[in-house]
Amino acid sequence: MKTLDEIEKEISILKEHILCQEIGNDSYYLSPLYHEQLLTLEALENEADVLKGKSLPIKLDFEKYPPDKQIFLKNIVNEKGLSFAHNYKDLSADELNFLWNLIKKSHKNKKNTGH
Predict the structure, then answer these.
(1) pTM of whole model > 0.70?
(2) What is the total count of domains within the chain?
(3) Cβ contacts of residue 98 below 8 Å, gap of 6+?
């Protein structure tokens, strides 16, 4: 797992790249790379917030996932007494990675369907 300093450095570099695209290109918003960078930036900022102990608002539709993953995610939520706006610092690395993968998958699905 990356340290907070490493993540903040990546965020800083990514913001520079995004800003350069916005300044230097009138059609930057059409670029798939630009949109991927925005998603990456959002994920990194969320990761940094988790490491800082801040809440991470997560909205997931359980029904999108296979039954075994639904059960796994619901068990995490039930065992820890978590709501989706809860602080996730109590989760193990495996549980956190699982949630991050679901979040990334959710973002990609929204991006691909235009929502």
Answers:
(1) no
(2) 2
(3) 69, 72, 73, 76
Please tell me whether residues 39 and 65 are part of one structural domain.
no
Q: Which residue has the tokens 């999108």?
A: 64
Same domain, 63 and 92: yes
> pLDDT by residue (tens digit) across 75-96?
665 555 444 434 555 566 666 6
Single residue among 54, 82, 97 that ends a domain in this structure: 54
| Reduced 3-state DSSP string for 11-65 | HHHHHHHHHHHHHHCCCHHHCHHHHHHHHHHHHHHHHHHHHCCCCCCCCCCHHHC
